[in-house]
């Protein structure tokens, strides 16, 4: 089979590799019918993720068809159309049992293993461990081009942004950063009845998209960004400020927007310490949340996509085939210049 193999910083090749096979009785093999690229894949290619070593197949998102089933697998059969999520879960360890498979102990202490600790999904076939507890059947009325964004981006915006931020009916919500993850938060904020959703970004195309995804207001980042957003909230600030960029200044912006009693939900992956004005924040009863996505909201999101409440397909702006995967990476790497959000890659 062919797969996109990492060969050290800056090096990746679509090349021949040994076929994916069942290795444990709890495994299945899935033929990848649709995959995509995540910002994390770009971090790996920059050499930022030390656990990813030479020879690893990249990718942690897929929709595909089961082609081989281990002896212990009961819930899936050859021919089933399945969603392979970014997080793998054994279902039995202490973290899986408390609904936090992001820290599944059985698969290595972190639930994100595809394209990280084991071979990933940017390949013709992928081996899926703990298939019964990790895979999701895709309903007939959900297309591959919709389901693929439920593997990572949509659950991340929803779980780490909207749910952790505790968005409630009537709330005013600010989302700092309108990339795929910020847009996923914007797309799902309405499910909890936010009355106002303010998108904040430095990129005009992303702000236009944010309005299409359900934001009520769009604010371009400038020296007065905090005052501009506060002015949209009758001077009060927002109930929930979601951070979806990952820089110190964007988390500080989110912190400056939230009103007393509100929540800052940090989604961004930070690579450096962040200084926050705790001397002002403590007395305002501010909550600060953060975390790695669990993808446990996938069943909910699949229902909402199937019923038309979440137009997940809007995330995909560009399509490629496997042999164009280098072009897909180039477009995604320069997403802003290419007016791209997520890419859809198929055989
Ligand atoms: N917590 C998790 O489990 C998890 C999972 C996936 C991704 N993430 C993180 O979420 C963040 C967003 O991911 P993404 O894929 O949407 O990234 P992205 O690069 O597509 O989007 C980031 C957006 O932020 C905007 N931006 C850049 N600088 C800004 C600034 N100073 N002010 C306002 N906006 C600014 C960009 O224009 C872009 O639209 C990243 O940090 C990513 O690593 C976290
Ligand atoms: Zn990802
Ligand atoms: Zn587990």
In CATH terms, what is the architecture of the largest domain?
Answer: Alpha-Beta Complex
What separation lies between the terminal Cα atoms?
A: 12 Å
Q: Structural class given helices, strands, pairing?
A: alpha/beta
The share of residues in helices is 25-40%
Task: Give the domain tally.
Answer: 2
Largest sheet data: 6 strands, parallel
For the CA atoms, what is the radius of gyration? Answer: 20 Å
What is the H/E string? EEEHEEHEHEHHEHEHEHEHEHEHEHE
Which small-molecule species are bound to the chains here? nicotinamide-adenine-dinucleotide, zinc ion
Number of strands: 15
Note poorly predicted spans.
Answer: none
Q: What's the number of helices?
A: 12
Please give the order of strands in the largest beta sheet.
10-9-8-11-12-13
* Proportion of beta-strand residues: 15-25%
Q: Mean of residue pLDDT? A: 97
CATH superfamily of the largest domain: Medium-chain alcohol dehydrogenases, catalytic domain
The oligomeric state is single chain
Highest-level CATH class of the largest domain: Alpha Beta
CATH topology of the largest domain: Quinone Oxidoreductase, Chain A, domain 1
Shape: globular
